[in-house]
Amino acid sequence: MLTITNVRKTFNKGTINEKKALCGLNLHLDPGDFVTVIGGNGAGKSTMLNMIAGVYPIDSGKIEIDGVNISREPEYKRAQYIGRVFQDPMRGTAAGMEIQENLALALRRGRKRGLSWGIKANEKDFYREALTKLGLGLQTRMTSKVGLLSGGQRQALTLLMATLEKPRLLLLDEHTAALDPKTAKKVLELTDEIIKERELTALMVTHNMKDAIQYGNRLIMMHEGRIIYDVAGEEKKNLQVEDLLKKFGEASGGEFANDRMMLAK
Amino acid sequence: MSGILVAMQGAVAQGVLWGIMVLGVYITYRLLDIADLTVDGSFALGGCVCAALVINFDLDPLAALLLSMLAGMAAGAVTGILHTVLEIPAILAGILTQISLWSINLRIMSGKSNLPLLKLKTLISSVGDSLGITQAQASILVGVAAAVLIVAVLYWFFGTEIGSALRATGNNEDMIRALGVNVKRMKLLGLMLSNGLVGLSGALVCQHQKYADINMGRGAIVIGLAAIVIGEVLMGRLINFACKLSSVVVGAVIYFLIRALVLRVGLETNDMNLFTAVFVAFSLSVPVLLGKWRARKEYSETGEEDS
């Protein structure tokens, strides 16, 4: 499904701020994989997702989706394959537009946009149904501006928008990190439900180790731009937070103490 | 008394014709969230192109209007390419185009800074003659017809898939890019559309006042902002997009009425730029100052108990 081969990225090359973000990254995802991604600050988790989405160009290597090489495609063209939810709830929706307008924009992800009406009458029932499934009561507020919604509601809406037109790959970049614990849990459960129901392939970055173990069928740990631990199936299900901390300690050596607190939160 | 009425009629005519420019400014300033300074240049460009075509090539006034609009779109495209392809900040890109248009406009007018149409036929004079009404009335008629048509077309366009994507570009660029829209193309399109309307407005004003002038666009962007602000204050937070667009034209009419009044009170035409700038600065700062004042007033060290 997704194949990343030897991808490298260095920011601010040749300056004092040089930062090797990805150092020969290799990853293969099978269809239906729900992979959680953990790692310390600066491990390259977000960079990996941004490289897949095409936010910055990669220095070298190859990114393929279903055999199509997308390494040099611009971000907006990759959108036909990829649905995304950002960490910042404000980034995934247009605040000044109605809920149904946002959904109509999302339904047309990756399609050619023309001069036909931007939101057709027969789509509205579909949106109402999809919003009802979210269970947040948004189906009665379809003409409200998205700016009136709370962060959690906006994030749930973004999740719905990213999956409205089935993406081949769903990228979730710490999409619950900015929410309060209760809302975060709700959005995470919703994420799990949608991924299972629609049989999506997904990559989810998280700082919460418990969530990383509980959700998905595979877990990868990143450190200094590489994947240092990759576990799936039964072995993953039986993982404990302590195991992950130990693994992380082995890989990162001295930095363990710094990152431990952050990872364990 | 009739002197005032005639002056008011002239002001309304000017307001409606300039209102078409303000519709253009609205597209960039409110929908795309870009302060596009090309406008001062492309407004004069529309006027100069129109005058030159009518005088030198004896072109039909209506065709001259359309070509002026295309000229405006080309100016918008230059700013758009500077901004999107070459990644020059939008304000600077607009200034660059505006400055270069000053030279281009002089070239178009064969080095003259003013090009009078004199007795040549214009769209407005033909309408006036055939209906037997005054120039000012004919200008209002033509202006209102053009404004209604343009508002209708814009209302339709911004409801389409491309139009929605353009609005979303001004609203949240990251989001709409992630949904597969080439935001650079949207900005280019918006700038072209906007400056096309500005060029058309310049050409209409040229046909109304019967001359084109190298300085006719000076301060146009500020007039545009003033009209948008007036429209929004008067018509409030209207939900309907067609009403919002119309309010922009109404704002322009009221701006020119105020201007006519201020001129009668004793200010000179040369003072108008200062007057408009102060007005816009004032309108834009009022919400900020009110917010600060409110925050200071509501602050208390102990806080109030929630009841």
Automatic annotation (TrEMBL), chain A:
<dbReference type="GO" id="GO:0005524">
    <property type="term" value="F:ATP binding"/>
</dbReference>
<dbReference type="InterPro" id="IPR015854">
    <property type="entry name" value="ABC_transpr_LolD-like"/>
</dbReference>
<keyword id="KW-0067">ATP-binding</keyword>
<dbReference type="Pfam" id="PF00005">
    <property type="entry name" value="ABC_tran"/>
</dbReference>
<dbReference type="InterPro" id="IPR027417">
    <property type="entry name" value="P-loop_NTPase"/>
</dbReference>
<feature type="domain" description="ABC transporter">
    <location>
        <begin position="2"/>
        <end position="249"/>
    </location>
</feature>
<dbReference type="InterPro" id="IPR003593">
    <property type="entry name" value="AAA+_ATPase"/>
</dbReference>
<dbReference type="InterPro" id="IPR003439">
    <property type="entry name" value="ABC_transporter-like_ATP-bd"/>
</dbReference>
<protein>
    <submittedName>
        <fullName>ABC transporter ATP-binding protein</fullName>
    </submittedName>
</protein>
<keyword id="KW-0547">Nucleotide-binding</keyword>
<dbReference type="InterPro" id="IPR017871">
    <property type="entry name" value="ABC_transporter-like_CS"/>
</dbReference>
UniProtKB/TrEMBL annotation, chain B:
<dbReference type="InterPro" id="IPR001851">
    <property type="entry name" value="ABC_transp_permease"/>
</dbReference>
<feature type="transmembrane region" description="Helical">
    <location>
        <begin position="245"/>
        <end position="262"/>
    </location>
</feature>
<keyword id="KW-1133">Transmembrane helix</keyword>
<feature type="transmembrane region" description="Helical">
    <location>
        <begin position="219"/>
        <end position="239"/>
    </location>
</feature>
<dbReference type="Pfam" id="PF02653">
    <property type="entry name" value="BPD_transp_2"/>
</dbReference>
<keyword id="KW-1003">Cell membrane</keyword>
<feature type="transmembrane region" description="Helical">
    <location>
        <begin position="188"/>
        <end position="207"/>
    </location>
</feature>
<feature type="transmembrane region" description="Helical">
    <location>
        <begin position="138"/>
        <end position="158"/>
    </location>
</feature>
<feature type="transmembrane region" description="Helical">
    <location>
        <begin position="274"/>
        <end position="293"/>
    </location>
</feature>
<keyword id="KW-0812">Transmembrane</keyword>
<feature type="transmembrane region" description="Helical">
    <location>
        <begin position="62"/>
        <end position="82"/>
    </location>
</feature>
<feature type="transmembrane region" description="Helical">
    <location>
        <begin position="12"/>
        <end position="31"/>
    </location>
</feature>
<feature type="transmembrane region" description="Helical">
    <location>
        <begin position="37"/>
        <end position="55"/>
    </location>
</feature>
<keyword id="KW-0472">Membrane</keyword>
<protein>
    <submittedName>
        <fullName>ABC transporter permease</fullName>
    </submittedName>
</protein>
